[in-house]
TrEMBL record, chains A, B:
This is Putative rRNA methylase. Gene3D superfamilies: Vaccinia Virus protein VP39. It holds the Pfam family rRNA_methylase. GO terms for biological process: methylation.
């Protein structure tokens, strides 16, 4: 496939925002794939997860790759502003959300509609101009569909003078594949 | 804006499909911007428009840039298969549609829902594997909204085993901005 898939498209976008000298936030560390991507391209990364298993897996991945610029926080992303100092927020180039459950983890523990929207609500006003926010949603399972719906509604209602908000999705698949939302603070 | 706009996103995708040695088709030459983009990156281009004014403008643009690899056809894109030889179709890397009316032309003359769908219906089965089809739609005016709706429905119903079909759009603007559909023959 020459067309970018949803995850490669997200990476392609992140490349436009990330740069050395900047900070980045991984709101959902999971197994650490995005955290590592951010650590390679920014000076400082804060990565959050509510699951100890995810924090451990991410720590291992980051250590193995030899990166020492990641703060791993075992807490909900709703509390990002409590953990990340304001001067780091001011210098944040990108924030990544990969919604849903931990792959091969306990599927009953997922990001939830209320925590995701609450996190955006908390954080968006504090982020600097030109910061990119990338949200990958997985409507293929029940809570995921509910969450994607809420995120879609929330993002569609953001003031166009404050945010650019785009969506990239595959539209002819029967199994509700993942899709990506991209926000940029204006 | 670091996020790609709809037109730059389309170009970014076209770059993935186009290459020297291949042919390309501009189904809606308009003022020739896409035709020129294709002429620069493919060996042979067929460009269609139903308006003489558009053909003349495109001819001038292509000539001024010194390209001699463009066949300009003053006819509807519904007739693409009548004009483009089968061996050229077999070697086509990308097809571009920029729907709607000619900028600064007669706004009563637009591509129409029926001609666009009919053209896709005629052409898609004949295109080679890995050919990319890019469709930019303009739902900001009445016929444009109707057309976008029909294109969306048509593309969403394409068999996922025959086509990858993606959509990129800005979702928080009140004035129904242009959006882009990308198809890839599997």
């Amino acid at each position: 496939m020459k067309m970018p898939g949803v995850l490669p498209f997200g990476r392609l976008l992140l490349e436009k925002y990330l740069h050395k000298g900047a900070a980045a936030i991984d709101a959902t560390a999971g197994k650490g794939a995005d955290t590592l991507f951010l650590a390679e391209r920014a000076d400082l990364v804060y990565a959050f997860d509510i699951q100890k298993q995810a924090i451990d897996a991410t720590a291992q991945r980051i250590n193995q790759a030899g990166y020492t610029n990641v703060h791993l926080i075992h807490d909900s992303h709703e509390k990002i502003l409590e953990w990340v100092p304001q001067e780091v927020i001011n210098n944040t180039a990108a924030v990544v959300f990969n919604l849903g459950y931990l792959p091969s983890g306990d599927k009953s523990i997922t990001t939830t509609t209320s925590s995701t929207i609450q996190t955006l609500e908390n954080m968006l006003p504090s982020l600097p101009k030109e910061c990119g926010i990338l949200i990958t949603a997985y409507p293929g399972h029940t809570e995921g569909a509910r969450e994607q719906n809420a995120v879609d509604k929330y993002i569609s209602a953001l003031n166009q003078h404050s945010f650019h908000a785009a969506k990239y999705q595959f539209i002819n698949q029967i199994n509700h594949p993942p899709l990506v939302y991209a926000l940029e603070k204006r």
